[in-house]
Amino acid sequence: MLPWFKNDAFPLYLAPMAGVTDLVFRRLCKELGADVMVTEFVSAEGIMQADERTRIYTEFDDAQRPVGVQLFGADGPRMAEAAKKIIDWKQPDFIDINFGCPVKKVVSKNGGSSLLKDCPTLAHVAESIAKGVGDRVPVTAKIRIGWDQHLINAPEVCHILEDCGMQAIAVHGRTRAQGYSGEADWEVIDQCSRAVSVPVIGNGDITSGADVARRRATTGVSGVMIGRAAMAYPWLFREAKEYLATGLVPPTVALEERWTFILRHARLLVEWGKFPGERYAMQSLRSRLMAYTKGLKGGKFLRQRFSTVSSVAELEDLAAEHLDSVAHLEEDDADDSETMLLVDPT
Fold first, then answer.
1. Angstrom distances, CA of residue 77 to CA of 61, 96, 133
2. Predicted confidence (pLDDT) at residue 337 exceeds the cutoff of 50
3. Three-class DSSP category at 203
4. Which domains does the chain have, with CATH numbers?
5. Rounded mean pLDDT of 289-299?
6. Longest dimension (CA), the chain
7. How many CB atoms lie within 10 A of CB 6?
8. Would you place residue 69 in the very low, low, confident or very high pLDDT band (cuts 50, 70, 90)?
9. Is the sign of the CA dihedral 184, 187, 190, 195 positive or negative?
10. Which residues does the annotation mark as catalytic?
11. pTM score > 0.70 for this model?
């Protein structure tokens, strides 16, 4: 058994998300309580061609462990060679295979979720990588529940993957056809968890500590994977841990703490050196900043400003402006409440 599942542990995974779960964001989520990291997916062919732009996606620091590097592709032997190269470079804690990505450019190359409707190829890929890697590191996989509503075959796929040597399987509760719409089907995820002896990690619609506790109590999953909810509210990992420990819902993170986190995210991204300059780093962060506005007062205004932000200094000024405006709004609300009490004490 993978060590992070031992002693009845129930690990919280940060889901791999292209353009989101880079080295910096993983570091921040780890600090907030995420247990297991998975990199953005990496092209096996890019690794084989020694493409530096691809290789940067495999980067991580030791504080993020346990961390896995996720590969996608459809050529089992080539993917096995790519996995061995990654192990030589970075020695990750595991290699993860992407059988779940719904994006057209991946599916069109017979990668990601397209293999859910081609189980022989899926099995060949999984077995090739597991045998190629040997006992150097464990190999895991991530799937969706099926291709569409007419082909929901995740329990069968889980059986195949277990037989091919996968040591854990993450299951996203939507089909490829759903993309990210509709609701995740946790009944199918539960069926998967009870169909195999390896740990199954449930993924989909986890937005609170109560969600984590409910899925732990009502399904057979051995852990959960949190994706889009963490983009807007990465404190979810910390709050889930607290809820699991106490059954209490912690207070929502204060606005000042949110801005401290956002500014730190920006500074770390610039310092990382992945981008040719501060302006490019901040441009890459814009979509992430948009996600952070969810649930904030003045969110529409912030999104307008975030769409053009190009420096950390500009972001700092915006933080000060927003904090000041919200403070004044709260003072005005308090004054209005006091006036109402004076006029109508009932």
1. 28, 15, 11
2. no
3. strand
4. 3-246 (3.20.20.70), 255-343 (no CATH)
5. 93
6. 78
7. 8
8. very high
9. negative
10. 101
11. yes
